[in-house]
């Protein structure tokens, strides 16, 4: 069965206010839903496993016709998180476009006017502002001082608690490891923990879910494989407080 048919995809209209004039043409793009579905579990028996609840769309570099390679990963992760919020509500507000995200940050006073139309990257703090601005959802920001033991103890436990209570996707980024990534779940076994990572850095034609999984664009990654010398920040939408 074609994984890009029916309930597995969503069509996003990027015309009107969602298109950056002169750069993004009016178009409709199909985005895959729930790309982690069917992914094999980590190769260890779980002591504890917590994952997102509900549906999301996979946003990645260039999915709206804008070539944002090298700077847009934070925006794409925000869009993936926003799609979960959109699909979890009866009043649906589509994920904001890149120009809309930038303009919102300018309107809130977080960025200067020159930020609109720029290629400046954003992180977890900006993600918390954007999700609250468009969806009235506050976010918990967690700072993990370093890799290794800090990630295994602090981040893993925070993620277990988050998915059990809120069930929403999480954004993760750092300093040395400054590539934004979405976190969809956490798996703790006797020999360590794994994070279910959705990577927004894919650029190219839409692939089937199985191919995205085969190429590692969504994968269970050992916590110990992350940069041990980097600090990490987590942006966790507090959806349970808003009755989602």
UniProtKB/TrEMBL annotation:
Bilayer-crossing residues are: none
- What UniProt keywords are attached to this protein's entry? Hydrolase
InterPro entries (UniProt xref): Papain-like_cys_pep_sf, UFSP1/2_DUB_cat
**Keyword Hydrolase in record:** yes
Record keyword Ubl conjugation present? no
Q: Name one GO molecular function term.
A: deUFMylase activity
Domain of life where this protein originates: Eukaryota
Tell me where in this chain the UFSP1/2/DUB catalytic domain is found: 48-235
> According to its UniProt record, which protein family does this protein belong to?
Belongs to the peptidase C78 family.
Tell me the protein's name.
UFSP1/2/DUB catalytic domain-containing protein
Species classification? Eukaryota, Metazoa, Chordata, Craniata, Vertebrata
